[in-house]
Amino acid sequence: MGSLFANYIYYNKYNDTSNKLASTQSELNQQKELAQSMDTAMSVMGNMHATPVAVKSIDSTAADMGARIYWMKNTDEVYIDPANLPKAPEGKQFEFWAIVDGAPVNGGIITGEINGKKVHIQKMKSFGKVQAFAISLEDAGPAKTKPAKVMAVGSI
Question: What is the pTM of this model?
Answer without folding.
Answer: 0.77
